[in-house]
Amino acid sequence: MKKYINQQDMKQANAADVFGLIRARGQVTRKQLEQWTNLSWGAVSNITARLIQSGYIVETKPEKIEGAGAGRTPSYLAVNEAEHFCIGLDINSSGLQAVVVNLQNKIVKTLSKPADFRRKDILLSDIYKLTDAIVQTAGGHHILGIGIAMQGQVDALNGVSVSLPHCKDWAQVPLGSLVSERFGLPVLVEHDPNCILYAQSAGTKTENVILLRVDNGIGMAVMLEGSIFDRPGMFELGHICAVPNGAPCSCGKKGCLEAYASQEGMARRYGKPFDRLAAAAKNGESKAVLLFEDMAAQLAAAICNASTLLHIKNIVLCGDMWRYQDLFYDKFLHCVQAISGDNPPSFSVTDVENAAFGAALIAVERSVKHIRVGKDDNK
Ligand SMILES: [Zn+2]
What is the residue extent of each domain of the chain? Predict the structure, then answer.
């Protein structure tokens, strides 16, 4: 812990603050920055000059207005959208996604790759390949950091992927430091539903919400009073007991919700891949229809229980399962109604592509707090 703050620290803190204001406001003048920050005109000029030199902001002159007076027109400062970026990755057994996001939170590139979760070394190699490919697309531009949205249990504080039920030999993998060492960049690792929720709630006034991702697994994230609430292993709704001593789950236990309501669990019960099960249910095959009805009832009960426990009515749903909602959604809502009576939760559906985006947004927020503008001050 530092005992004092020196002049250089002050300069970095001010640069981050000034840059934060320009990001939040869009276009600003130096005069406005002087008023909003209580910094001197000299300090504002110095910091903005350094931000321009480092490629974080650009200066724009408004077009000359016909008939305007001879007074000096102030130039505007805005975020340079073409110079610095963060990368977001989503590691999910349904597929790997990567995005490049600029410092105005806009996606400028996306890539995807099928996921191979058979073994740890194969999966790690796939993650490195995708990261390599997305880093290449950013060319010579500056990448400030990487955010990884990770399925399974995550220790976000230490950047560790604790477990991944779909990959048998994956345990306590220090993914953050592995990727950081390989690419020489700061890397953060977050539980994927948290990243989707982060992207979903960015720029909104959302305060309390539960998000559920349902595909090959079941992930859950919770926002309480505006903050995403998490601890490693918390909110593993997919591995609560749905049926005591019931169907086997990928985690090794029996009767978990995932064994009944995830695509992988349903396929295991059916004995054929999930797309075959969905096709059979569409054709009215009774065994397949029953599995979807079972899924709808189990998922409705689990979501209503979570809603009651946390006293949150606002539920956001996402994941590949919602592409098949014509096979179960009516039954699901019917079950929700039967469980919660006159005061049922409300549902909306969002896009899982937001996992990579949300991870990149978290990386952007962390990076801009620590931007540096000039090494010469250290001499
Ligand atoms: Zn389980």
Answer: 7-80, 84-197+355-368, 205-351
Give the pair of three-digit tokens for residue 354. 């937001």
263 alpha carbon to ligand 1 midpoint, in Å? 13
Mean pLDDT of the chain: 88
Q: How far is the CA of 299 from the centre of ligand 1 (A)?
A: 14
CA of 218 to the centre of ligand 1 (A): 10
What would the pLDDT profile of 245-294 be if each residue is shown by its tens digit?
Answer: 999 998 889 999 999 999 999 999 999 999 999 999 999 999 999 999 99
Q: Hey, do 84-197+355-368 and 205-351 end up sharing a CATH topology, with the first three levels equal?
A: yes
- Centre of ligand 1 to C-alpha 314, Å, is 25
Tokens 């409300």, residue located = 346
CA of 214 to the centre of ligand 1 (A): 14
CA–CA distance, 121 with 98 (Å, rounded to integer) = 19
* Residue 233 predicted with pLDDT over 90: no
Task: List CB contacts of 30: < 8 A, sequence separation 6 or more.
Answer: 41, 44, 45, 48, 74, 77
pLDDT score of 57 more than 70: yes
- Helices then strands (H, E): number in the chain? 12, 15
- 7-80 folds as Arc Repressor Mutant, subunit A (1.10.10)
Q: What's the pLDDT band for 226 if we cut at 50, 70, 90?
A: confident
* Least confident piece of the model among 9-18, 72-81, 104-113, 309-318: 9-18
Determine contact, residues 266/216, Cβ cutoff 8 Å.
no
> What distance in Å separates the CA atoms of residue 333 and residue 328, rounded to the nearest whole number?
9
